[in-house]
Amino acid sequence: MTLRTYDRYRMSDVPWVNRIPAAWGTVPFFTVMRECKRSNAGMVEANLLSLSFGRIVRKDIDSLGGLLPESFGTYQIVEPGDLVFRFTDLQNDQRSLRTAISNERGIITSAYGVATPTGIEPRYANYLMRAYDASKVFYAFGGGVRQSIKLSDVARMPVLLPSEDEQRSISAYLDRETSKIDALIAEQEGLLTVSRERRRALISHAVVSGLDRAAPVKKVAVGETAWEVPSHWPVLPLRYTLRYQEGPGILAADFRDAGVPLLRISGVRTAVATLEGCNHLDPDMVAQKWSHFRVDRGDLLISASASMGTVSKVDSDDVVGAVPYTGIIKFTPGAMSEDFIRWFVVSSEFLEQVEALKTGSTIQHFGPSHLSQMRVALPPRDEQVGIASYLDEQTAKIDGLISEAEGMVAVAKERRSALIAAAVTGQIDVSGEVA
In which element (H, E) is residue 160 found? Predict the structure, then answer.
């Protein structure tokens, strides 16, 4: 459906909007939005709220454990219709949604700005600020260098102001249309959740229980869990089945403009290792101190944070001979084949052992000391090859579904953002689209 436009436009005096309907005005932010700082001293209110993914959501004040502040008396009170702004970490985080409207009374951290719409319809103001946020308008008020700003910094920011009736029409239209888009997004995200869980379960079953469902099995305790493995598979310490080594800690002072590549985490995010983001080391120093860390063709590399779910193979001439930086684990196949390693180290059985061994530690990555305590169910070599081939084929199908759903979510979010921007800046006239 093609929406109509307004009959007359004029050039806008707002830098990020080319034109606006001729009858619309622009006013400074402070004339229609009043900054509020309502103290929660004495814990007048205990309904804890948070800004998350562009929404104000409830948090359980009793479940924060060690994160619980000494007192929520330092928080501020928000009322229904208030707009919340998160203007912190502007330079490091340019993806998060920074504005939302509160639909209930509660308390929120004083690090956020809170404003009450006074001369503007709250829902319209919320959609307008969301459009400004998507266009990265707020970052300009930090001069491009400041990490945070305050509401006072945007006090004179121009705000587009249609008539009150138009504001209500735009809000009603966007409420209706975005709810349809949100339902589509929720449906696809539900499919993503199911597909990812199916993928996880498929890998987990194959690397521990194999492909022959009729094979006799035995139960083997591994940590606090019991694996059900084929009777003819031994469950062995991981260190008996492959070699592993973490890259060395190297100081920035040792970096050079050219020389032997030093692999970084950004180079092990795909199936084949690359030199993306790499530094370089002096060849003579590598020969003296780090030559035994250099990678060979066929080595497998994984981030020691175990959070990416990707194993990268050394399979190109420019990467062979590079040194992996600390935080990258190099696996060299032994009794466990290259292809089986690739699936085992992304399985739940591997990751759960990592998490169990990290419990109580302040270090959030694993290393050789953890790997030396881990175990693996080791199939005969022919079964390893068959399992890897099966998982390659089956996960490719699931990955196709995941990619399709992710694409639909991305398109829906882009349409949502574009629709909001078009409506609140007057590029479309929706006044006749709502009852």
Answer: strand 158-161
Asked: is 25-161 a CATH 3.90.220.20 domain? The reply is yes
Confidence class of residue 134 from pLDDT cuts 50, 70 and 90? very high
DSSP-derived secondary structure for 241-292:
TEEEEEPPP--GGGEESSSEEEE-GGGGSSSB---TT-EEE-HHHIIIIIGG
Give the tens place of pLDDT for each residue, 195-213.
Answer: 999 999 999 999 999 999 9
| 99-101 vs 55-58, strand pairing mode | unpaired
- 327 pLDDT band, cuts 50/70/90, is confident
Element holding 78 (H helix, E strand): strand 76-78
Half-sphere exposure of 61 (CA within 13 A, CB side): 16
- Residues 304 and 283: their CA atoms lie apart, in Å, by 26
Instruction: For residue 210, give both structure tokens.
Output: 């194999």
Domains of the chain, residue spans: 25-161, 211-378
pTM here is 0.82
